[in-house]
Design a protein that fits this description.
mainly alpha; 7 helices; flat
């Protein structure tokens, strides 16, 4: 599929992301998106394929992000297996902080208006 065919299905208010990803910041987005331990990484990689990012830059960002992601999983996985309650408590606090905005109607409405159809 061509870039134009894919972008025709992207909402108008989100197309700026593809043009920005082709710049120097695009590799940083791929690196951070790959390194972040929770969430889909395929979207970052597929999105980078729609930009003018050079393949060596993409592979470097992918490799660096993958190492960070693996290190995070190894550290926290080991801590959970050892029964470190502080890690479990920190995870619970982060989960509550991430989902708290969804509990209030204003938070849900903001997400709908920003990312909705």
């Amino acid at each position: 599929m061509g870039r134009e065919a894919v972008l025709s299905n992207v909402p108008e208010n989100m197309r700026w992301a593809f043009s920005a990803a082709g710049s120097g910041a695009g590799a940083t987005v791929v690196l951070v998106g790959t390194a972040y331990p929770v969430g889909p990484i395929t979207a970052f990689h597929a999105g980078a394929g729609l930009t003018a990012m050079a393949i060596p830059i993409f592979l470097l960002a992918l490799a660096a992000g993958s190492v960070v992601r693996a290190a995070i999983y190894a550290y926290f996985g080991s801590a959970i297996l050892e029964g470190d309650w502080r890690i479990l408590a920190a995870g619970a606090v982060l989960l509550i902080a991430a989902t708290a905005p969804l509990l209030h109607p204003r938070g849900r409405n903001w997400l709908r208006t920003r990312f909705g159809p």
